[in-house]
Write a structure and sequence with these properties.
Blueprint (H helix, E strand, L loop, with lengths): L1 H29 L7 H19 L2 H25 L4 H19 L10 H6 L3 E2 L9 H6 E2 L1 H19 L1 H11 L1 H6 L4 H27 L11 H11 L4 H15 L1 H4 L7 H5 L1 H15 L21
Antiparallel strand pairs: 1-2
Helix pairs in contact: 1-7, 1-10, 1-11, 1-12, 2-3, 2-4, 2-10, 2-11, 3-4, 3-10, 7-8, 7-12, 11-15
Length: 309
């Protein structure tokens, strides 16, 4: 039982950056924009969050800096795809290249630096009374650091926003049929800009978790492909923020499998590749499903031009 509890707790920790990246991509895709730049946004958030955290020692300022960095990267993408109506796939790939290059440039002098003790102390595990006493799941879910609890809150709030509020229903309408939403006096460009920036900020938080808490030190390419897994996870969870919790922690468990399984008869490189193999399998399986409930927004990847209505 202790092994299971420890494994689940480690899966939650490893899945947290995936959760933020997935939530960010969900809210972006819900307004009809396909953003393949999640990896770049997470890297921007990780390097800026770490730089500011290293210089200030303040966890709140570091997280704000990571969110701003992610939002600014998303702003570039939004300007290209919403205002200029550039190809969304190409723009997203360009954002990943830009974020990777800029993080490597800014992180050159950060290699070997570790997270300040004040930030480490702030993100120490905190047990939630009563809930942390639940057998197995209590320790795994409710004896974690505050950043993980923030992930729970973001997923729940985002789900309630999308499915239980009028603004959230407007978001869904923009992604499904922007022409009809426009005819209903919904400001399409405003909704797209706001939610693309919000998604970028969430991706930035995911990157900050890696450099400030998960590692916690700066290393080049700290995301190690997690942004791409987050893009696939959006499809796996059916664009549902509530399901993103389960999907992210499941893939987090796959990510740490190599650290938990040690045997001379098992190829460790193969185990390390399991999350990426699983991503491929998920995409194949999901593409074979014919479920309207779990289908992508109908206008996903399509630029909206009002005069074409």
């Amino acid at each position: 039982m202790d092994w299971i509890t420890n494994f689940l707790a480690a899966a939650v920790i490893a899945g947290t950056p995936l959760l933020f990246g997935t939530l960010g991509e969900i809210i972006i895709e819900k307004v009809g924009n396909l953003n393949l730049g999640v990896e770049g946004l997470m890297l921007l958030g990780s390097v800026m969050g770490f730089m500011v955290g290293l210089s200030t020692g303040n966890p709140f300022i570091a997280l704000i800096a990571a969110m701003i960095a992610g939002a600014l990267g998303a702003l570039v993408y939004a300007f290209l795809t919403v205002t200029l109506r550039a190809n969304q796939t190409v723009s997203g790939l360009a954002l990943t290249i830009f974020g990777t290059g800029l993080s490597s440039l800014l992180g050159t002098k950060l290699v070997g630096q570790v997270t300040p003790d004040s930030i480490k102390a702030f993100f120490k595990p905190v047990a939630i009374p009563l809930l942390s006493k639940i057998p197995v799941l209590g320790t795994a879910l409710f004896n974690q650091d505050p950043f993980i609890y923030l992930g729970y809150i973001c997923a729940i709030v985002l789900g309630l926003y999308l499915y239980k509020t009028s603004k959230g229903l407007n978001v869904i309408a923009v992604g499904e049929n922007p022409a009809a939403a426009d005819a209903a006096s919904i400001n399409i460009n405003l909704y797209k800009y706001v939610h693309i920036l919000l998604g970028g900020a969430l991706c930035g938080l995911g990157g900050a978790y890696l450099s400030l808490v998960y590692v916690p030190a700066w290393q080049e390419n700290v995301t190690a492909g997690r942004g791409w897994i987050a893009v696939a996870l959006v499809i796996f969870v059916g664009w549902n923020p509530f399901k993103a919790l389960i999907g992210a922690y499941f893939f987090g468990g796959l990510d740490i499998l190599g650290f938990r399984i040690s045997s001379p008869f098992i190829n460790q490189y193969l185990i390390a590749a399991i999350p990426y193999i699983a991503t491929f399998v998920v995409l194949v399986v999901v593409s074979m499903r014919n479920s309207r409930k779990n289908s992508p927004p109908k206008s996903l990847g399509q630029s909206y031009f009002r005069e074409e209505r």
